[in-house]
Structures are given as structure tokens and as C-alpha cells.
Write a structure and sequence with these properties.
Elements: E1 2-4, H1 11-14, H2 22-38, E2 41-43, H3 47-57, H4 82-87, E3 92-97, H5 106-118, E4 124-129, H6 133-144, E5 151-155, H7 159-168, E6 171-175, H8 188-195, E7 200-203, H9 206-215, E8 218-221, H10 226-238, H11 241-258, H12 261-272
Helix pairs in contact: 5-6, 5-10, 8-11
């Protein structure tokens, strides 16, 4: 039995549910450990997660091959749509696809929109796709605070429509609440964003912060730091289109090097055949204990 660990459990559950019972937390911890330890191999999406399992759960490295995730093919498309172009012409468009598994920081985005209203760069627009409770809460707060001019809520879109929103995007944005899980993993949506060849405006820490820094594909700030997020937004806004294009191409090159679908399919096939996987360096020298409940 080989398990691909897309998200850490039970931590990923806590990002969705506020579990207060320490007894229930311990039960979830033991149950998760049981399944992790019963697997013959745990295929992991990042070196940081390998260090987590190796150091804290005493799982030997030969049971922990690392295979980075690959982007969804829909994000590799850039499709012209004249209706969308006309609708969003003349504004600086920040596109967000989905809500990052319910971890969207509504308060940070609202505070940034309020700073936009007070500032001089007022032609900035947030284009939000998807439908979830956090997105609906963002829409409610935007309306309550009179910020509706800065937001367009597009609802659920089909995979075929993703490329049309990429075409009108000046940058792609991801803003989440502080979550320990991203100390070790890269959200799949970030991998998708890299494939879109657009500059990224990201408010996350941990492994995502390192990816943005190493690839040069955009700007990052720590979660819930709305002032730093706004400052980074202005940097992108004031860049030339050519500079932003170059930043997006750097992200695409990074994705093709490290998050390549064909390479990873070959790696997984090799793991199933019992072949050795290539070693991946881990630059993170510290791992925080997540199981202290």
C-alpha cells in the first residue's frame, strides 16, 4: 500500500473545523498515525514533509520518496475572450481561483481593499472565482463596507473558462489565514498558478514563501500582514507590463523544472517498480512539532 500524502492529517482537518476537544484531537492523531505507519511507502509532495515524518514520526527515509505535485492542465491555457477583456479593460486585475481549501483570509483582503480606496491607485480590481462559505463571507463584508467597486465575484467557472481569466489577469493572488500545515507543503493551487505564467501576489509563509523567493515569480508576505500585502500589490501595480511578464515566465520555468507532469509520472512509475528515487535536498534545517496538542 502506497499513500500519496497530499495534506497532513489531522492538521488539515483543523483548518476546516474548530476541534476543541483534546480527547477527540488525540483520537484523530492516533488514527492518522496508524494509517501513516501501516503504509509500505508514503509518497510526499515536499522535502519538508519528509523531514517531518522522518524526525517526528521515526519513519525511515526509504519509505518516504518525494514526488512534487503537477499543475492541472487547465492552468496552462491562456485564452482570449473579448467579452471579458471589454469588461475588465482599464483596470489592474488580481485574479483568485477558488478559496485555497477554505483557508482564505477574508479580513486581510478587506483591509487591503480599504487601503486601495484610501490611496491613489484605485483602478485595482479583485476577480474572485469559486463558491464557498469564505468567498460568500468576503462578498458580504465587501458589500457592508461599501467596497463592491473593487470586487467581481464570478462564481463557479468551468475548467474551460480558467484560461480566459488567466488572459485578463495582471497577477494571481492567494491570501490565507496562518496555517501550520504550509510550513511543509505547497498548496496545489500555487503549483497551478506557476503554470499560468503570471506574477503571483501571495500572503503565506513556510514552504510557499521559499518557493516565491527561489523562483522570483512574485511577491510574498506573511499571513494576515495586510500592510505588507498592500505594499507588494503597489510594487506589482507600478511595474511595467514587460517586468510582470518576465516575473510570470520565471514562475513557469520553475514549474517546468520542479513540478513537471511527465517527470513525476516517471518517478511514480519507478517507485511502483521498486526503483530508487533521486535525492531532493531539503533546505529547511528546523521542523516545528505539530503534534503538541
Amino acid at each position: 500500500v502506497y499513500v500519496y500524502v497530499a495534506q497532513l492529517w489531522p492538521q488539515s482537518l483543523y483548518s476546516e473545523l474548530d476541534v476543541q476537544s483534546h480527547l477527540f484531537q488525540k483520537i484523530l492523531e492516533k488514527l492518522s498515525l496508524h494509517y501513516y505507519q501501516k503504509a509500505d511507502k508514503l509518497i510526499l509532495p515536499s522535502p519538508g514533509m519528509r523531514k517531518y515524518f522522518s524526525d517526528l514520526l521515526a519513519v525511515p527515509d526509504d519509505r518516504l520518496p518525494v514526488v512534487f505535485p503537477s499543475p492541472d492542465s487547465a492552468y496552462e491555457q491562456n485564452v482570449r475572450n473579448d467579452n471579458l477583456l471589454d469588461q475588465f479593460a482599464g483596470s489592474f486585475n488580481l485574479v483568485m481561483f477558488g478559496d485555497f481549501d477554505g483557508q482564505l483570509s477574508v479580513s486581510a483582503i478587506i483591509r487591503v481593499a480599504e487601503r486601495i480606496r484610501r490611496g491613489s491607485a484605485r483602478k485595482i480590481r479583485f476577480l474572485i472565482t469559486g463558491d464557498s462559505e469564505t468567498i460568500r463571507e468576503l462578498q458580504r463584508q465587501a458589500e457592508q463596507k461599501g467596497l463592491h467597486d473593487y470586487f467581481y465575484f464570478e462564481g463557479e467557472i468551468s475548467p474551460e473558462q480558467i484560461g480566459t481569466y488567466i488572459h485578463v489577469a495582471d497577477a494571481l493572488i492567494g491570501v490565507i489565514r496562518p496555517e501550520q500545515e504550509y510550513e511543509y507543503t505547497i498548496p496545489h493551487q500555487i503549483v497551478n498558478y506557476l503554470a499560468a505564467a503570471k506574477p503571483l501576489l501571495i500572503s503565506m509563509g513556510g514552504a510557499v514563501r521559499d518557493l516565491i523567493r527561489d523562483s522570483g515569480c512574485g511577491f510574498y508576505s506573511e499571513p494576515d500582514d495586510a500592510e505588507a500585502l498592500y505594499s507588494n500589490l503597489l510594487k506589482l501595480y507600478r511595474m511595467t507590463e514587460q517586468e510582470r511578464c518576465q516575473m510570470g515566465l520565471q514562475g513557469l520555468a520553475y514549474q517546468q523544472e520542479y513540478y513537471n507532469r511527465d517527470k513525476h509520472a516517471d518517478l511514480i512509475a519507478g517507485i511502483l517498480r521498486g526503483e530508487e528515487t533521486p535525492e531532493i535536498a531539503d533546505s529547511d534545517s528546523t521542523v516545528k512539532r505539530l503534534w503538541d496538542l
